[in-house]
Amino acid sequence: MAKVLRMPEVAESVVEGEITRWIKKEGETVAKNEPIVEVMTEKVTVEIPSPYEGVVARLLAKEGDVVPVHKPIAVIAEPGEDPASIDFAALLGEEAPEAEEVSEAPPEEAPPAHMHEAVAREAERAAEPARMEGGELKPPRIPGKVLATPAARKAARELGVDLAEVPTASPVGRITKADVLAYAETRKEAAPAPAPAGAPAPITAEEAERVPFRGLRREIARRLRESKDRAVHTLHVDEADMTELVRLRARLKQHAEAEGVKLTFLPFVIKAVVAALRKHPYFNATVDDEKGEIVLHRTYNIGIAVATDQGLVVPVIHRAESKSLLELAREIQDKADRARRGELTMEDVSGGTFSITNIGSIGGLFSFPVINYPQVAILGLHSIKKRPVVMENGDVVVRDMVYLSLAFDHRVADGAQAALFTREVIRLLENPDGLILAL
After folding, report:
1. pLDDT tens digits for range 52-103
2. 70 counts as catalytic
């Protein structure tokens, strides 16, 4: 009998995954434990092995679809079974793609019995006839999320319709699929009239390219949007004199190369950051918005932003406080290389408590990094450049200077704390001999 392949639970905290590539197509045979589909979740792409052998009878999700865990994504016929004989409706039951239409509730459905009391009162008030504003029917709305049937939400996604803009005559403001389709038609009818003679020609399909918003780029967008929506982003910028660190690295670089390790400035910065986080624990923290708690971490798991061809990923150096400079350099090199090859695991990108983004090799004066939510802060490391500096005795000398930009969540820390934390990082970078001995 045919088997249903479901979206696996890649990690405990993962609730959905994006189908990035079907390795096996409909009609192709698949062996047990042979990779069948490539799934992206939390910026990590993994190949999912088939738990069954047989023939791929039907793919239930397209490349680019985001599917909740445990939901069906494919049907696999057993060896010797004719895929044409499979009763997909019976096999999938209510989970068949067509079932979403059945779930549509009557447009006049009353508010659920479990609705919060305050929302229920608002629903009763909204049960008055839909009001007219400026000749347009305005739907009564319940505060909070837009009420809509599953079929309506599906249609809105497919048509690119914002549910918040869709009018409905329902007394409780519940949007149906019919409401979405009607609104989409009105948008077509309201399309701009042809441009008058002599006006510049509009951009045609031949003059513009549409790139699907999917894969790592979509996951990055989701994470950044979540960060901007939840954290109160604030920026603190300072500069450090890296002259002594430049000299120290130059002396140690040859020894590192003899060990097969590329010694960059990043391991030194991680050492300085960990030491500063010990003194300022509210920056080595994450926010649990659901419980209303700030979680102060006792280990120092430092995320390092890595630019890849697909976008930015942030592998984590776990327990950085327990590693030497060479160990840090070796792990940074390994994880950066695997990030660019798309070989990171969920463990590689999980559990970060603070992040560093090193964009000095690209250029620019300084930047405003986006916090890697639910973390509290991220440090931007920029280009080390020779600049004239006025010393305390009045002499003007050339020094190796760098800007540091600390983006932090103002809900958790204030500007004075950010300045003190950054100054401690700078103090350690400007006096780097102690970093060699620091654990």
Report:
1. 999 999 999 999 888 898 999 999 999 999 988 988 888 887 554 433 333 3
2. no
Identify the CA nearest to 48 among candidates 22, 76, 12.
22
State the pTM of this model.
0.67
CB 350 within 8 A of CB 316: yes
Choosing from 70, 116, 255, 410, the catalytic residue is 410
Give pLDDT tens digits for 217-273: 888 888 899 999 999 999 999 999 999 999 999 999 999 999 999 999 999 999 999
